Request: fold
Amino acid sequence: MGSGRHVQRNITRHMADNVILFVIGDHGMTATGDHGGESENEVTAALFVYAKVPLIDQTQDSVKQIDLIPTLATILGIPIPYSNLGTVITSCLPLPTTKIINWTDMSSTIWANVQQMTAYIRDYSSLSTIFDTEKIEQLNIKYTILKDQFSKNINNEVFVYNCINYMSELREMCEHVWIQFDSFSMTRGLLLCFIPVFFLYTMINCLTTSQLSIIFSKSLIIFIYILTASIIIACAICYYINIISNFFTTTYFISGIAGIFTLSFILIQNWELISINWYEMSKKYQLMDIFYRFVLLASVCAFFSNSFVVQESYVSVFLLLTLISTTILDLFNVSPSKISKNIKSNFKASIKFKFLVLLGSFCVLIRFSMYYWQCRDEQNCAEFSAQKLSNTSRAQLIFALVAVGFVVTFTRMWLRYCGNLAAFNITVLFAQYAPTVITVCCGGFWVLHYLPIDGKPKSSPLWQADYLALIAYYLIIIGLLVTYFRPLTVFVISNNVNSNSQKPVKTVPQIFQEVKSLFSERSQKREEIPIICGLATAYSATFVISAVYILLLFILLLGHAVAPSAVLLYFSAGIILCISSISRYERSPNIDELLQVPTASLLTWVFLAIYFFYGTGHQPTFPNIVWEAAFVGTGGIFTSNYIPAALVIINTFGSYILIGFLLPMLQIAPFSMYAIVTSLTSKKNDEQRDVNKGDITLMENDNILLTNTFSLSCKYICCFAIRVFATMLAATIHCRHLMVWKIFAPKFIFEAISLFVTIPSVLFGYVLLIRINGAVNKLVKALNKGNR
Reply:
């Protein structure tokens, strides 16, 4: 304290006469050192003002921090910021040389402040209806009176006092609307958020797949559609006849209430089954099941600490690697006799090596992705991070193009190896050539739009570069639509399908087994049995093709500096699918168990999406949003805000979109993988021969597949809904804390948007799975009919 006074004394001694010194405290502090709360000591800070010339008034005891900006602007002779609601602190203004207050100049200064605040409130109230209309009219009357007095040169102390009172009343109106802590409304919001999440999780977790298929019957789905449509129509009518003032808010609220009542009715109706299943599940819980739930709970509890929120990138990568490592270690600790009856003695040696290779590869990918982390302001490395990503070079561009080209080439080779590029249809045509064209367009856009050559002007106008991005957009959209409406990429070769002498083949597994025998047996069956290319990966191939389109869109919006991080996401997801497939296959005694996705795999998938939000160069703060994504292909010319907003959301939450869409691959991967790479397993029994049929097994068990995927999708969505509820609760608890506006509130908004984009992504993946299954069944019926 003494040294501070000494420094302050030296500064004031050497100050010029035309200099004024402001020493400002950002916040107060209690006697125990706490700050950021709502107590008087915490919200009160020190303000020291010193000038060698006398100031106007030194009797004012306290001011608001918001008043500092207009005061400093007035002293510096610059306009007051448009959106500021502060009042000039008159006691900090220096007196003229006559040492007598010039009320004319003072009135002009205060009147400029009045005009600035009034203009802002009028513009704001014209775009929003949150202010009381009657209060706005009263303030307009007072403003008119003050304006009349100023025009008549009534410039005295009373006029200044009236202007200050008018601005204080204007600010109080805004504080009443913007700075309110309604505990009752917060509690209702938390309750409305918690109840549907709890009901949905209880129903999905405590009912079997067969019971869920019975509950969610066609009649219930039709009822939900009718109820939703009725709510929308009723709200539209009420809005039209001026019963309600906000159509969207009312529709959301009533739909939420209706959903809660629907879920509660289902729970009450099936409570006996839920109780029985809950009791049976509690007896089967193992230590690892509790551990996995603890990991999810720990990640949620971290939201209540601002330090953990700031460092969540480190927390998420730690939890992701923990889940994968414990999954592998848990399998190592199980004796071969407990896994299956016929596993050979070399199980541990062979499986350990495969797992270690996959785990090492995954760790390398994660380590490389950390290069693309962005820094928050609180981490004191934002400048370095921005410099790292802004200093683009030809090497970065070449590396990005090589990485994207490798993804496209690798995917095409995999599809060709599986036989999914042998057909002659529009889906296969797009899968073969569209990704390559999109990659070329991305490279051309990056070169023309971002990178000058040797510091010289760009060789092509920017609108030509935007055309390349538009071509990529159109190809991606058309490719997704084509894949959705024509999902199959199988190729049927039939020498004599319509022949009456053909031997009937009733099921696709028989076709598959006999086709395999054609390469070793010489018989007339070679001419009778149709050859079907790509049937063993019919489900997975469609998802891989669609995922490549989504990935390329994500890559285009990320830009060449961050694009390789999306490539790392793509291969990391593939490694997790391999680890999950091997683990489940070695543990599962039958196909029904193999179709059940364990909690560890689900949570790993969840944390993969969460981590790569950070791994693709994002942070849950508004300054870290990449607004440049809105200009990719648009040229900055917007006819509406929907397209730019969609581009920014895809850029920011691309990991959630891609991983949510690929959620059904957790069900499909074990079958597709072992149909192609049989050496991944140590099993040599009848079960292996069943799984070697690939995706045909999914077609034979399609009811279980679709029901399990529905249950898996609901659990996946519940995980993100729990995170949204936790961030909402954390923001509510810290609502009076200064850090809530900088950390907790933005975190809640980002988590809410992540849930908003996850739900349609998961829904799209589930609907695509239904279409693939329908197309496969249609193909089977056509083949059986043609061979009768």
